[in-house]
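Page 47, continued from p. 46.
Same chain as before, 222 aa.
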Amino acid sequence: MEREDTGLVDLRKVSHFFGSRLVFRHVSLRIAPGEVLLVLGPNGAGKSTLLQIIAGLLTPTGGEIDWSMESGEIGYLGHGTCVYPFLTAMDNLQFWGRMHGLSPTSDAIIGVLDRVGLKVAALERAGTFSRGMAQRLSLARILLLNSRLLLLDEPATGLDTASRDILDREISQAKSRGAAVAWVSHDAQRDLRLADRVLVLENKGQAFLGSTANYSEWVANA
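Result:
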């Protein structure tokens, strides 16, 4: 899957410090269209930092990173829901679309809200939403952009079983249309089935990068 001419983003020996504290050193990775990369590791290993670097939100301390996309083609879902509580679900998406230079129609917005199970709450203020509903609205914000690369940092936080099924479906559909997904998860046993490859950050570095089958062997032999 990793061909020289198909990478959406290419990291070469990327390292990052926060002040004098090393987060990770020498991470090398290419993410190709149509692949799902599961990012694993203990708390504090640098998973969120890595996604922020890939999104262009942080400049790495060392190494090189190249993108074959425009910045608007990356959808980033971080820990915060980034929803405006006094705006309705529809208005939130209208605002975020305009922030990215888009003019989504009402039908397009309703369609995205329907995909995440929020169509019936389209005209409700986001401040009345549960954590899970707010998380799904934030996911809708990313889906509205139709991004080539989706960066999802623990997107299942606060989701019930039905909502996690929605998330699984959207990740699979992104892969089917040729988009790439880099997905931070704390539930490898559940989420491994949706991934093509696994990256493990551990002990200040890149402990493993390979297929899901090789990851299972690596874990068994650890």
